[in-house]
Fold this sequence. Notes:
The protein has 457 residues and is an all-alpha fold. Among the domains are: 1-18 and 34-132, Serine Threonine Protein Phosphatase 5, Tetratricopeptide repeat, CATH 1.25.40.10; 134-165; 322-457, no CATH class. Helices cover 74% and strands 0% of the residues. It is built from 27 helices and no strands. Helix 7 (103-116) packs antiparallel against helix 8 (119-132).
Amino acid sequence: MKLSIILTFFLLCSSVYGVQTATEELPDEKEPFSVNAFVLSLKSTLDAHGVDEAIKLFSTLNEEEASLEQIRYLQSSMLISAKRYGEAQVIAKELMELSPQNKDYIFLNILICKARGDKVGKKQLLERILSIDKNNLEALTELADEQMLIKNYKKAREYYSKALKVKSNYSPALFGLGKIDYYQENFAAGKKTFKQVLQVDNKNSLAYSYLAKIAMEEDSYSEAEEYLKKAIKIHPDNYLYWLELGECYRDGNKMNEAIDAFTKSIELNKDYFLTYLFRGSAFDYKEKYVEALNDYLQVLTINPDYYLILEPAGQLAWKLEKWALCSQIYKRLYAQDPKSVYYLSMYSASMIKNGQKSSLKTFLSQNFKNFPKDSAEYSITRLFFDDVWGIVITQRIKKKEKKRERDYMQLCLALYYDANNDWYRATSIYKEIHDTSDGNPVLQRFCRWNLDRIDNG
């Protein structure tokens, strides 16, 4: 399909209208209108001033010139490029009514449907193409791609296979089959198909990218690295390839190289939040906690609703003794889950460490209602509020059936003692949790951080 204005220009300048030839200038006579000359003028304006200025050139044509089908086709294509889909559709529909069997005009309407998200209209037009030309490769592949979007891999495979019966080395259909095999975890078949794609088109960087994905699934990180380097050689400015290379290095335990690749990806696209998340996790692994926290905070700057990063960011803020930031993060987490006494305790402890105990009491007084009065959660909240400890807290914690729940309840007690400088009790609980929570490395690490801080304090 003609999916870009550049392709339209090549179409108009070559296959449709032929090569412009020099003509002898006739004195005292108006030079006859030349579609090719208009196209060249249009391209020159587009390059120099952009699509909106180029579109204005159509208004300089007289009625006869503007009514030419070639000109109207080009005008509709330009309007699509400018995202003026309503105006483009009016022209495209008129052209299709003039020549109902013209596949170029039908594809022009398909392009508008695609841009507008009109899946029903697009499907109808694709089927119309196939009623005219049952072996149309573009239509078969487009229909397959639509089925891929809804994960109907069986139907997609049928369309791709039909296209390959028409042309056995048709790269888009081969690529589609490779993707199906990848998504269905048929990696051997997928690898074979993507290599076939490269035999047809050795500059297909996406084929290298998918070969790398398969290699990573098979833990073949050196192989994946080579494929990704080939993809990057073809498209060095593709930030996603650098991101994938970073993931390859990370999963292959090459953290320094991973950080470098993620950094390159960020240089190419500073607005993709997942790259900061991945680089932050690599910094975290390398115990570069300041850099990790900065990246996690950048994730929230770009995507404020990405709540999954709040807990890692909050723990690093605690580790770095950024009490104000820590309290802000855990207040957000608690707002998302007001039944979590752990989030409430992290917020409370960081508020106390930040010298905000009075404000904390006001907040806590409004949140007792979130917990039953006979629960451990309520007792812990009361402890932070009025500093009255009782054996009942321990008894209620012991009633929790799951060890994970008991561990986090105990952690809440440790946070209270930590915030109030009762180092002996805090250390005792942190150590117990650290030594017995084998299945929770995040909790163990947090306790180890606190033990180290207290020992060094």
